[in-house]
Write a structure and sequence with these properties.
disordered C terminus, mainly alpha, 4 helices, 82 residues
């Protein structure tokens, strides 16, 4: 079971990295995500755009907790290099 969790964690981190890269080059995606009022909404919007991770996985992958409506994708780019 631990192997599966490690694989899932690695896959979700890759999804977060993929989202960061896409948001850096796609202003429409960035605008959509920046309109999220809270982290749960942000993750739901990302999932609707085809990115597969949970709130917990986002927090673990980025090492931060977004304040409601305070942080935007463009403000935290580069936090997830790897």
């Amino acid at each position: 079971m631990t192997k599966f969790r490690n694989l899932r964690r690695a896959m979700s981190k890759q999804e977060v990295i993929r989202l960061f890269r896409a948001a850096q080059t796609n202003p429409n995606l960035r605008e959509i995500l920046n309109s999220a009022s809270d982290l749960e909404t942000f993750v739901q919007m990302a999932q609707q755009q085809g990115y597969n991770f949970t709130v917990d996985e986002w927090q673990k992958a980025t090492g931060l907790v977004m304040e409601e409506s305070e942080s935007q994708v463009s403000e935290i780019q580069g936090k997830c290099q790897g």
